[in-house]
Amino acid sequence: MKSRNEKTKLNWRVRLMLVLLTAMLGVTAGGWLGGGGAAWGRNRWSPPATPANGQARRQLSFAERVDYQRRIEQVYWRHRLWPAENPGPKPALEAVMSPAAIEAKVADYLRQSRALEFYWQRPLTAEQLQAEMERMAAGTKRPEALRELWAALDNDPFVIAETLARAELAERLLRSWYATDERFHGKLKQRAAAELGQHPTVAGLKRGGGDYLETEWVKRDAEPRARPGSRSAN
To answer: Do residues 107 and 42 share a domain?
Structure first.
């Protein structure tokens, strides 16, 4: 029989299996991160207990993800300040965000997860999602709001990982990989470098093949200074 420590080590080695399914509104993805509840101590999240052997691998359907996303948006909306200049009461979330908009958010982070695997062969792993949750817990400036978010997700580490953490991590990693990928930016980068070589001055850039936009910023003192030779108003 394996000891509890051996089981724990084994659990953290399990990789997140990304299952891609074509659905009416997008794709669904499932992962394995273990079960159990989340515990808070000094504003940090404690890892869940090791699940029992033989527990079935969990997945979230698209409909379940949409329901959890709606809960997340409810928390965000409750914590969003309502302008004091607006005399009317703060409306309900349903008045400012449609069900279709919530579904689109879920579809977006699932597509981003799929893109990480398809274009860069970097599917999100259980270890990455675990680290993302711990980053949230350690770096939050509003622990009460984070507790409320996780409570809205039933304090379930698997659900938190597959919704809140996946959405944040997928977007951040996708932006990072895309920004440096020569397959998408190589030709444009070469063209820009060539034109900079031909037109090294600002005036020359205006004759380049791309769009040239110029913005002038003027720094002003808090109070205007008197010009030399002018009389003071006093």
So the answer is: yes
Q: What are residue 118's phi and psi, to 5 degrees?
A: -75, -45
- End-to-end, the C-alpha distance of the chain in Å comes to 92
What does the block give as tokens for 147?
């507790």
Residue 225 covered by a domain: no
Segment 34-70, tens digit of pLDDT: 333 444 443 344 444 334 443 457 899 999 999 999 9
200 assigned to some structural domain: yes
Total domains present in the chain: 2
Calpha distance 71→146 (Å, rounded):
13
Q: Show which of 179, 201, 229 is a domain's final residue.
A: 179
Phi, psi dihedral angles at 227 (to 5 degrees): -75, 150
Does the pLDDT at position 94 exceed 90?
yes
Longest dimension (CA), the chain: 94
Cα separation, 110 vs 103, whole angstroms: 11
**Domain shared by 205 and 97, yes or no:** no
Q: What is the pLDDT of residues 70-82, one digit of tens each?
A: 999 999 999 999 8
28 with 144, same domain: the answer is: yes
pLDDT band at 191 (very low <50, low <70, confident <90, very high): confident
Q: Does residue 18 contact residue 50 with C-beta atoms inside 8 Å?
A: no
